[in-house]
């Protein structure tokens, strides 16, 4: 019989299709693994309502478990509690940075309109002299920044709370 | 009347229509960053619409899926407010429409996240996080355009003058929501309009824009009586399912 720990281990081999350095575990979208008899249920939560990668992650999880000999695994999508970037693992944050994506910072309350801007350090040169180009980037979960020192444009994995 | 179905349908149709309108900007944004921003936001709304219409179908209990509801209804069966179906016209009009709507959606979801109906609460909790980003984005543009050049100021003031007549309907209330509030399914909406008005006042003041004096307002959307624009949206939105029923990819 397969154990919960083994399933979590297998999930470490399933990657986010849009940010392929992160596993679904790093990303914090796996909420729960429930083992019953010879099969299991994996509970996941979407990052953003319209994230097109969710369906793909669901299929990839099923495929990976099948490949590991876990037959008929189910994937359930739950919305609550809503995903937050606080669930990114420490390991995930490190991997993001190495990959050239700045990990989420504490942005304060987004509903406060004229708040002081927070600083996103450049993932390439660590300079704090960076500029927001756009709140919205190449995927739902990223914003677009540029470093004013090394001049590199970079993605920022924006804070969602 | 099935109030849970009707209420969820209204929320879902609002998201679907404004999401569709924003998606029309894909490839036509004034600058690349805004093209990407508007399509990202469109994606959030279409995602919300998917969750809400799926749930509406479940509440209805007649086996209709979210897709059935999105693609296979007639115009009178759509229950979105008139504001969200108004055309894009130009970037300023689109941002003003978005701002007036986002400023309503944020306090609405803040209330609905505590609904005792757990399924509605879950969607609201999820959507609220995205809505905060949307509101910040649209507010910033309203301010930039209003307090910008003479041309941008004139045009976005005109957008406000035209769209203001559609904002009263955001607070439309009838037996559907009253019944759900009375039954304890959703929380009271007291103070919703006041909160909306506060955000609107604050941002428009910063943008040096003037709120129109006339308080005459349109309504009808919640009852399925739409402006002529909805038909054109549906023609585009439903084309594939009407021409090739059941098509999937």
Name the structural class of chain B. mainly alpha
Q: Count the strands of chain B? A: 0
**Which spans of chain B of ≥5 residues are poorly predicted at pLDDT below 50?**
none
What sequence of helices (H) and strands (E) makes up the elements of chain B? Answer: HHHHHHHHH
Category from helices, strands and their pairing of chain A: alpha/beta
How many separate domains of chain B? 1
User: CATH homologous superfamily of the largest domain in chain A - what is it?
Assistant: Fe-S cluster assembly (FSCA)
Major pleated sheet of chain A:
4 strands, mixed
CATH superfamily of chain B: Ferritin, core subunit, four-helix bundle
CATH class of chain B: Mainly Alpha
Proportion of strand residues of chain B: under 5%
Which tags fit this structure?
heterodimer; A: 161 residues; alpha/beta; GMP Synthetase, Chain A, domain 3; 4-stranded mixed β-sheet; 4 helices; B: 249 residues; mainly alpha; Ferritin
Structural notes for this entry:
The complex is a heterodimer of chains A (161) and B (249). Chain A has helices at 4-11, 24-27, 53-67, 90-99; strands at residues 30-36, 39-44, 74-77, 101-102, 130-134, 142-147, 153-157. Chain A is an alpha/beta fold. Chain A has 2 domains: 4-83, Fe-S cluster assembly (FSCA) (GMP Synthetase, Chain A, domain 3, 2-Layer Sandwich); 99-157, no CATH class. In chain A, the strands form 2 sheets. Chain A has a 4-stranded mixed beta sheet with strand order 4-7-6-5. In chain A, strands 1-2-3 form a 3-stranded mixed beta sheet. Chain A is elongated, with a radius of gyration of 18 Å. Chain A starts with a helix and ends with a strand. Chain B has 249 residues and is mainly alpha-helical. Chain B has one domain: Up-down Bundle (Ferritin). Chain B is built from 9 helices and no strands. Chain B has helices spanning 3-23, 32-60, 66-71, 91-112, 118-146, 150-163, 175-182, 192-206, 229-243. Chain B is globular, with a radius of gyration of 18 Å. The model of chain B has no long low-confidence stretch (mean pLDDT 96). Classes of the chains: A alpha/beta (161), B mainly alpha (249). Chains A and B meet through loops of A and helix 2, helix 5 and helix 8 of B.
